[in-house]
Amino acid sequence: MQALITKADGSTEYFKVEKLRRSLRRAGAAPNEVNVIVAQITKELYDGIKTQEIYRHAFTLLRASELPAATRYSLRRALFGLGPSGFPFEKFLARLFASDGYSTQTGIILEGKCAPHEIDIAAYKSDHSFVGEAKFHARPGIKTDLQVAMYSYARLLDLKEIRICTDAICGIKEFWLITNTKFTSTAEHYAECCGVKLLSWDYPRRNNLHDRIQRAKIYPITVLQSLSVSQIATLINRDIIVCKDIIDNPSILRILHISESKIEQVLAEARAIIITSK
């Protein structure tokens, strides 16, 4: 009999083994590791088990065999560490889109036709531009809803053709609503109908936030297991947001007052995450 699991938002569904397999494969786990972990998790399932518990157990098993894969498997949880203000999440998104060739700005004010707007992220390149709102949530289970999608459409209407740079491409035609969790189904339907672009951990089905992170190999420093929460906070306060920031500027780690051997450990983990990422 299949186990009924409890999701982060309190809803329930039957355990789907392929979801676990897919998440482990995406993290870079070898086929034999996937089979071993799935077999172990499946044996210990029971009705009412929480998805967080399944995740923690899978992460523990994966970490015991291969740290970089385990770190990538923890990516979704790591995004929750880009808080509590949400500003680091905006900066992370800017780094992510910059890796795709965009020039980016965060936290800017644009004058619309009827009101000023604080824009979390603006991005443009030779063939595309957009502005967007970053809805950061500090824990799973909280979804961005219809009201936020409607508000985003109203902002798009007021900002239509306002320029974010001097190039011909820079008149605003797209407003993106981006979250580190999920959207409600009504928010997705409304956005599809009115033309607001949505980006979440798993939406759209292809080229979602998870896919973009994996493809670009832009990982937040909150995935690093070799740093404490307070050490990560210190780096974020210095605008060190992604693992590549550490690799490009290793000397920044000296602000943590850690040993040279510890610095090498952190660098080795950051490099391994990126190099072994698929």
Mean pLDDT: 91
Q: What distance separates the N and C termini?
A: 35 Å
Q: Count the helices. How many?
A: 12
Written as H for each helix and E for each strand, in order along the chain, the element string is EEHHHHHHEEEEHEEHEHHHH
Find the CATH topology of the largest domain. Answer: Trna Endonuclease, Chain: A, domain 1
- Reported CATH architecture of the largest domain: 3-Layer(aba) Sandwich
The helix fraction, in percent, is: 40-55%
Low-confidence stretches: none
Total domain units: 3
**Rounded to an integer, what's the Rg over CA atoms?**
20 Å
Question: What sort of overall outline do the alpha carbons produce when their principal axes are compared?
Answer: globular
Strand order of the largest sheet: 3-4-5-7-9
CATH class category label of the largest domain? Alpha Beta
SSE layout and pairings?
Elements: E1 4-6, E2 12-14, H1 17-26, H2 31-43, H3 51-65, H4 67-73, H5 75-80, H6 87-98, E3 103-111, E4 116-125, E5 128-135, E6 143-144, H7 146-159, E7 175-179, E8 182-183, H8 185-194, E9 197-199, H9 209-216, H10 229-237, H11 243-248, H12 260-275
Parallel strand pairs: 5-7, 6-8, 7-9
Antiparallel strand pairs: 1-2, 3-4, 4-5
Helix pairs in contact: 1-2, 2-3, 3-4, 4-12, 7-8
Notes on the protein architecture:
The chain folds into 3 domains: 4-73; 87-215, Trna Endonuclease, Chain: A, domain 1, CATH 3.40.1350; 219-275, DNA polymerase, domain 1, CATH 1.10.150. The chain is globular and about 60 Å long. It has 12 helices and 9 strands. The protein has a 5-stranded mixed beta sheet, sandwiched between helices. The protein has a two-stranded antiparallel ribbon with strand order 1-2. A hairpin with a 4-residue loop joins strand 3 and strand 4 (116-125). The chain has 278 residues and is α/β, with parallel strands linked by helices. Helices cover 45% and strands 16% of the residues.
